[in-house]
Amino acid sequence: MNPKIQKIIFGLLALISSILLYFYQQIKTYQSQEGRFLVTEVIDGDSFIIPPDQTVRLIDTNAPELDFCLGEQSKQRLEELLLNKYVIVKNFNRDRFKRIIGLVYLDENQASINQIMLQEGMARYDSSGGEQGKILLESSKIAQKNKVGIWSQTCNQTENFDNPKCAIKANIGRNDSLKTYHLPNCPEYNRTVIELDLGEAWFCTENEAIKAGYKKAKNCP
Question: Could you read off the pLDDT of 155-196 as tens digits, one per residue?
Fold first, then answer.
């Protein structure tokens, strides 16, 4: 092999080794002997970062977007629970965004952070079909029963308490993401619930709803 090429190859291998060693040392710096990782940043109500730059998401737990109802409050609650603390992540795998998803604990003998967020109504249960699903579902049902967090009238509404004159209900389909609006004289109007934590909304006029991408429900006159 040409000595110059050999020198380049060895140089590249040394550089790669140095980079890998750096990231390994970064992880070890923030990892305790018990396999815990320091939470350095909270992104929103269901995800956070551990060093060197790895995102972890609470499995089966779907918090509101930051600009939706209780989105910022959900993030703040997760910060209270996790920020600058060491966590254990169990039953984990990766999603299509390469994020780690799993059950997150401060102490294995206590409830998971997933359970706490769901039971306090700071997130919705979003099943992935894992073994942990039953416990998390029950935690979510407790929040619904007690009408706390996103299940309270703050986010879960059949009437527009802030502005009663704006009574057009705008829904987003769970399965097809279809955006439709209901007028007060529509057959399904009284049964329609506006879930503000999912991005649903109230509108004052049909034009406002249409401009926001909604179409009149098919069964409306």
Answer: 999 999 999 999 999 999 988 999 999 999 999 999 999 999
Helix (DSSP H) and strand (DSSP E) numbers for the chain: 5, 14
Q: What are phi and psi of 53, to 5 degrees?
A: -165, 55
What's the rounded Cα separation, in Å, for the pair 142 and 122? 12
User: Can you tell me the mean pLDDT for 102-125?
Assistant: 95
Among all chains, which residue has been given the structure tokens 């706490």? 116
DSSP-derived secondary structure for 134-200: HHHHHHHHHHHHHT-GGGSTTTEESS-SS-TT--EEEEE-TTT--EEEE-TTSTTGGG--EEGGGT-
The three-state secondary structure class of 62 is strand
Q: pTM of the prediction?
A: 0.82
CA distances from 110 to 88, 154, 207 (A): 12, 29, 51
Instruction: In whole angstroms, give the CA distance from residue 118 to residue 126.
Output: 10
Q: Could you tell me which residues come within 8 angstroms of residue 174 by beta carbon, excluding any fewer than 6 positions away? A: none
List the structure tokens of 88. 């254990």
Q: Which amino acid is at 127?
A: S
Average pLDDT over residues 94-122: 94
Query: In angstroms, what is the C-alpha Rg of the chain?
Result: 23
Per-state percent for the chain, helix, strand, coil, to nearest 5: 35, 25, 40
Query: pLDDT tens digits for 4-15?
Result: 666 666 566 666
- The backbone torsions φ and ψ at residue 92, rounded to the nearest 5 degrees and listed phi first, read -100, 155
